Amino acid sequence: SFEGASFYGPVKVGETLAAVANRVRPSTAISLRQMMAILLAGNPAAFANGNPNTLRTGATLKVPTSQALSALLGAPAATPA
């Protein structure tokens, strides 16, 4: 569970995990793939059989805070310019 989490939802018809992850991702320091994996792991009931392609319409997803994301991922590395 994500302490101090916010929520996203209800998921609309046709909405994908990638679209939701992109919408709730706090910054580009977290990759879209990482955000998708975190949402999937933290919201198993929102997906049929744990399949990331089967996001359930009407589901409400827990979204970790930026601080919780940093703790889960470690401090994101700076990208050289």
The fraction of residues assigned to DSSP E strands is: 5-15%
Distance between the termini: 36 Å
- State the shape: globular
Helical fraction equals 25-40%
Strand order of the biggest β-sheet = 1-2
Number of domains: 1
Mean residue pLDDT = 88
Q: What structural class is derived from the secondary structure elements? A: mainly alpha
The number of distinct helices, counting runs of at least 4 residues, comes to 3
- Biggest sheet: strands, sense, closure? 2 strands, antiparallel
Count of beta strands: 2
Low-pLDDT residue intervals, each spanning 5 or more residues: none
Radius of gyration, in angstroms, nearest whole number: 13 Å
What string gives the helices and strands in order?
Answer: EHHEH
Layout of strands and helices, then pairs:
Blueprint: E1 6-8, H1 17-24, H2 32-42, E2 61-63, H3 66-73
Antiparallel strand pairs: 1-2
Helix pairs in contact: 1-2
